[in-house]
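User: Teach me something about this protein's shape.
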Amino acid sequence: MPDGDAALSMSVTPESQAAESAAMATGPEALESGPRDARRLTAHGRAELAKAIVGQKAFIDQLLAVLLCGGHALIEGVPGIAKTLAVKALARICRLDFQRVQCTPDLMPADILGSNIFNLAAGSFSLHRGPIFTDFLLVDEVNRMPPRTQAALLESMEERQVTIDGVRHGLSGFFTVFATQNPVEFEGTYPLPEAQLDRFLLKIRIGYPDADHEVEILERYQSGRDPHDLDRLGLVAVEADLLTAARRETAAVRVEPALLTYISTIVRRTRDWPSLTLGASPRATVFLMMAAKAFAALNGRNYLIPDDVKAAAYSVLRHRLLVRPEADLEGISPDRVVADILAAVEVPK
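Assistant: First, the predicted structure itself:
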């Protein structure tokens, strides 16, 4: 994977810099008239996740953006940096059900979806529901899942329903897939096809904590605090209907026509960029607008600014771009292409 190790070793990423700019652009007048429920959910989520996760502000904000959009996330990072813990804690904070699937090369679709089992006493078949019937589904090491089982996720991610023995079953309105993958280990893996990658709203890269945060992690363990024991951490859940209200406010964030053109231009430039063989789809255009609106809501604004688009562009586009082999050899990565495109496209006044 191009520049994977370099990206993981960086404490400051391009999207985190853009997110800081978007946050600084929020004034007191915007907070007064901004989306109150989204702001409450964000502030509460940040405070409660900090009880389990040390640092990783950009990662937490991107998780919250996925939550506000109702999309799915692909989380990439080396083992042991709290990917699973963050999603599990977020489900607890939002009062949502959580299930985890550990992917292996022999995992079958029925292991995730479930199957019909014959009940001898009743003389009929009954549905044994798999872990996909939940709100938050963590698919750990998704690239170890065989292609047939990967394909079983497609319908659920796009339609929020599954088909078992020809019968369709609806999923939760909050159904969200958080899939993780290890960027430095490829033996026994099956790279995700472009069709499935395109269904993820964001590809979130999470790196190592900085020195101060790593010392704080040690201090927490030394004091007897176990971050995996969520009951003892005292996580406080939000009101049951706050997430629904926050999503409604996020969808209502105002986007001026000039910014619609700005978003479209950024995505269209990927389709004829010289170092790419594949650009982003029209779905990416929609997802970029959705994610940018989520970043606006995270910062307490009910209107979009260009910095929101820049903050969302890397994580929305990086998994949708295929770099030419010759450009890959020169060290050109999808993130670098996104940075070059953002620099080339004129920012609306």
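Now, about its shape. Residues 1-35+252-349 form a domain with the Helicase, Ruva Protein; domain 3 fold (CATH 1.10.8.80). The longest helix spans residues 282-298. If you'd like, I can walk through any region in more detail.
User: That's plenty for now, thanks!
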